[in-house]
Specification:
This protein is mainly beta. The protein folds into three domains: 93 residues; 72 residues, no CATH class; 89 residues. It contains no helices and 20 strands.
Length: 285
């Protein structure tokens, strides 16, 4: 059962889309109470439910909380709001102990990923504006990021699925190269916004995580071939931004210091405060 605090009130003036209003912290809480928390909800009036970060945003400040309206419409003056502010964890507090929750330690097996291959997914080819590249491989050995390069300025978009079958999409900036931040388990298409030549696409060495990583500090250990890792890898925590084509991975990623080669095995030991949380919904394009 998730733990949460409630803040309620009425809007003192109209709040346009993209505009903000501030609220005080619920009694006995402060910025630290909500560090790393997700899944906040807000009920407007009797029947309009908003969810963060899709239709509203929260910024926890030193003195108060700033709420950003992302609903796409103005919120009328006088509207009653009921804000459910979640705290970290999937259970109630530990009975008899203040300021502590139950958490789990997860042993995550990332396997022995093969070496990154810059053209494993698409061999060098010409792709017209809005057209899809011919794919030579659609399923990476493990969930991992996608890389691409081409000649001619364009935005390249990769579409596919994550390891739980959710549709996902990621786009490059306008340019001639792309190093993805999201971990794909399947590739369905790769398209270009403008005609390009020499387009190649392949796999990188950024590995996807099966559970949400709140912060690198929750990683207790890295294991390579049954030994503790001496040189630490690079972790990127789960993205808390409203998912879009250019945001990060919704569960987070790990890039081992030693390049994958199909022989090295990688495992992680992590604190997981909410095993049921698989991150925000993927951006499907």
């Amino acid at each position: 059962m998730m733990s949460y605090f409630i803040s309620r009130g009425n809007l003192v003036s109209e709040v346009g889309n993209g505009e903000t209003f501030t609220i005080s912290y619920p009694h006995g809480t402060n910025k630290g109470t909500f560090a790393g928390s997700v899944g906040h909800k807000m009920l407007l009036g009797q029947n309009t439910l908003l969810e963060a970060p899709y239709s509203f945003g929260l910024t926890f400040g030193a003195e108060d909380i700033t709420v950003t309206n992302l609903s796409g419409a103005a919120l009328p003056e006088g509207t009653a709001y009921y804000l459910e502010l979640q705290t970290v964890g999937d259970t109630d507090r530990i009975p008899g102990i203040n300021r502590a929750i139950f958490a789990r330690v997860a042993y995550i097996n990332l396997g022995a990923p093969v070496a990154a291959d810059s053209d494993a997914i698409a061999k060098s080819q010409t792709v017209g504006a809005g057209e899809n590249a011919v794919l030579s491989m659609t399923e990476p050995d493990v969930p991992r990021n996608i890389v691409a390069a081409w000649t001619g300025t364009a935005v390249v978009t990769v579409r596919g699925k994550d390891e739980y079958g959710q549709d996902m999409a990621e786009s490059s900036a306008a340019g001639t190269t792309f190093t993805g931040k999201k971990a794909f388990s399947r590739i369905d298409s790769i398209s270009a916004s403008a005609a390009v030549t020499g387009l190649t696409a392949g796999t990188g060495k950024v590995l996807g995580l099966p559970v949400s990583l709140q912060t690198e500090a929750h990683v207790l250990g890295e294991i390579q071939d049954d030994a503790a890792v001496a040189t630490k890898g690079t972790f990127v925590a789960a993205s808390a931004e409203k998912p879009a084509a250019t945001t990060g991975d919704v569960r987070g990623t790990y890039t081992p210091a030693a390049d994958p080669d199909g022989n090295k095995s990688f495992r992680l030991v992590m604190v997981v405060t909410d095993p049921s949380w698989r991150g925000l919904d993927q951006f499907g394009g």
